[in-house]
Structure to design on (313 residues):
């Protein structure tokens, strides 16, 4: 089968299309014929091996698994003997192993039947970015909140704005100039172009997905009992990346009335189901062979929303 692989860590130019063996499934797994696969920061980490601590999982000194990708949407090709939730022919979406390929294996608990109103491309954009946004926001309080979303033009940011707007929150979105129109379509009430204006205001909830701003600067924008949710931090140190700031957050948390959070998210079925009722912010779909182009645009901050890869039938 065809798949996008990398044999060394590096930038998007290490990605290439190759012929690889079709995966073999265990009795507790199923095989999915991939129609579309999501492009997200998790794939970027797997490609670059950054931060360096991530290579403890990805492999030292080179990638343990050649094939990139986590999110997918497709059709069940085969099921293991112990799988009862799905059968061949079912349309599904969720998280799998090595999804940038014609076929990928997955665990049933990480997949959901694809609703008819979603295309394969729309569904493939959802799992990782959507579930992360869902947990970064946290449960609705029952009354509208003032929410500041930093990095609102990216994958997680676009889902965060969509979800917050859908539940009635007053959303202030922070993004770059080229992404303003897209972020407005996602439902932002106010927009701050971080290249032109400083961050101001006082918020019930701050979701920071972009950059590596000091916690002190973020907390100054937060109400005394507000909540700060942090993810990403791609501009952190080479060894720990954004984890450096997360460690600071955990150390500070017991000493303040402000709620400081850095959720670690693995998409579950309940998450996937909750995300099917909002628009999927797909900006562009690339053929599988153009994965390097899609990843380059993601890495350089050119994508407003989500990009996906499509696999020819």
């Amino acid at each position: 089968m065809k798949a996008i692989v990398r044999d060394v860590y590096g930038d998007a130019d290490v990605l290439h299309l190759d012929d690889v063996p079709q995966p073999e499934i265990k009795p507790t797994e199923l095989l999915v014929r991939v129609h579309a696969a999501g492009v997200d920061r998790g794939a970027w980490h797997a490609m670059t091996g950054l931060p360096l601590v991530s290579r403890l999982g990805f492999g030292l000194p080179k990638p343990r698994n050649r094939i990139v990708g986590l999110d997918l949407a497709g059709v069940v090709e085969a099921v293991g003997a112990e799988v009862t939730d799905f059968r061949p022919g079912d349309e599904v979406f969720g998280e799998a192993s090595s999804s940038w390929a014609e076929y990928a294996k997955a665990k049933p608990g990480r997949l959901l039947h694809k609703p008819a109103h979603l295309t394969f491309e729309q569904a493939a954009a959802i799992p990782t970015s959507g579930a992360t946004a869902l947990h970064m926001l946290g449960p609705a309080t029952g009354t509208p909140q003032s929410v500041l979303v930093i990095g609102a033009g990216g994958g997680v940011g676009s889902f965060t704005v969509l979800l917050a707007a859908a539940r009635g929150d007053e959303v202030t979105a922070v993004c770059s100039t080229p992404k303003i129109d897209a972020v407005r379509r996602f439902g932002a009430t106010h927009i701050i172009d971080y290249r032109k204006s400083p961050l101001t205001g006082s918020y019930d909830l701050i979701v920071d997905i972009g950059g590596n701003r000091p916690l002190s600067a973020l907390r100054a924008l937060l109400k005394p009992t507000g909540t700060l949710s942090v993810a990403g931090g791609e501009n952190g140190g080479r060894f720990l990346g954004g984890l450096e700031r997360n460690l600071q957050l955990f150390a500070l948390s017991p000493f303040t009335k402000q709620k400081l959070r850095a959720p670690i998210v693995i998409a579950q079925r309940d998450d996937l189901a909750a995300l099917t009722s909002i628009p999927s912010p797909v900006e562009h779909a690339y053929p599988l062979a153009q994965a390097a182009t899609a990843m380059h645009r993601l890495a350089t901050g050119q994508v407003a929303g989500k990009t996906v890869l499509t696999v020819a039938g």
Observations:
- The first helix runs from residue 41 to 48.
- The first strand starts at residue 2 and ends at 5.
- Residues 162 and 278 are 7 Å apart (CA to CA).
- The chain has a mean pLDDT of 93.
